[in-house]
Specification:
By secondary structure, this protein is of the alpha/beta class. It is built from 10 helices and 14 strands.
Length: 329
């Protein structure tokens, strides 16, 4: 396949670019480098541009003529979306509209989009199936749901073929240590915990310990980034093979929930370092528990997680953290 990876200089996009290249596919990265990193574009050329720039997108699509697009270029911080919803609607909704219009204008038909478990809000039953009501409780989740609605409308009007992959919590790093999670500032639990264990984050705290869960901390379904990458490749291949124009939303998760406390214990065990943290208030927009039923991804894509036990996730994240820290020094 010839694939355009939009947002391919970021965390999941760079890991997926590597997986595509290793599977023999051709990769081009489109990224404005606002949150991505030039040094993580290693598996194909970089076309520098913004998703809100329709002319730049059309020029890229006409030049590369991709078989399909993988779209990773949405903003993804729940707390920030609550504080600055306009930023999220402008980029996530407006940017996805720009991509779809560029596809319409250049005849590119296939797209796999990063969606999110945030579309479900606070589900009433667990694990969550794709048939659960979509009722997001924060602007980030609202933008992801609207992105899916736009995909369906463009499919009906313009023959766009699409799959939306509803991630639960992406985690870990490239097992070879070539790419991984690097955000500034870092907001995700596992890299922050690793920074704290390493003595580089003095203000690390658990955000809420009074949730209705066994130990009072949030429960999430952590999925290794390598498993996410393989799901994207399978989803893109399915679109090219079936050519039926039907859209589909699929959960990507393990079906196992881990609390914040369990993650912190795993960090201590894997690194061999003590982890000291305070307890702070709940973060706005966080549901108590999110755990996936990903059986539909197995039946449709033949996909299941292979690397997502907590020991592998923490080991690969810690390996990448140490490698990336050494580069900076």
């Amino acid at each position: 396949m010839n694939i355009l990876v939009i947002g391919g200089a970021g965390y999941i996009g760079s890991c997926t670019s590597k997986a595509l290249a290793e599977a023999g596919h051709r990769v081009t990265v489109y990224d404005n480098l606002s949150t991505g990193h030039r040094d993580l574009v290693k598996w194909g050329p970089l076309f520098e541009g913004d998703i809100l720039d329709g002319e730049s997108l059309r020029a890229c699509l006409r030049k590369t003529r991709p078989d399909g697009i993988l779209h990773f270029a949405a903003f993804s911080l729940v707390g920030e979306s609550v504080q600055n919803p306009g930023k999220y609607f402008r980029n996530n909704v407006g940017g996805t509209l720009s991509i779809l219009e560029a596809m319409r204008d250049t005849g590119v038909r296939n797209i796999v989009v990063s969606s999110s478990a945030a579309v479900y809000g606070t589900p009433k039953t667990m694990p969550i199936t794709e048939d659960a009501p979509a009722s997001p409780i924060n602007p980030y989740g609202e933008t992801k749901l609207f992105m899916e609605q736009m995909l369906a409308d463009f499919a009906r009007a313009h023959g766009i073929c699409w799959t939306a992959l509803r991630y639960f919590n992406a985690a870990g790093g490239d097992p070879d240590g070539e790419t991984g999670e690097r955000h500034a500032p870092e907001t995700h639990l596992i890299p922050r915990a690793l920074m704290a264990a390493d003595g580089c984050l003095p203000d690390f705290c658990v955000m809420g310990d009074d949730y209705p869960t066994p130990d009072g901390t949030c429960i999430r379904d952590y999925i290794h980034v390598s498993d996410l990458a393989s799901a994207h490749i399978s989803a893109a291949a399915r679109l090219l093979q079936e050519k039926d124009g039907s859209g589909l939303s699929l959960n990507l998760g393990t079906g196992t929930g881990l609390s914040v406390r369990q993650i912190l214990n795993a960090v201590e065990q894997t690194t061999g370092l003590p982890l000291h943290c305070a307890t702070g208030p709940r973060r706005a927009g966080d549901p108590p528990s999110l755990v996936a039923d990903a059986s539909r991804a197995l039946s449709v894509l033949g996909w299941k997680p292979e690397h997502s036990n907590v020991q592998d996730i923490i080991r690969d994240a810690w390996n990448w953290y140490c490698i990336d820290k050494a580069k900076k020094h």
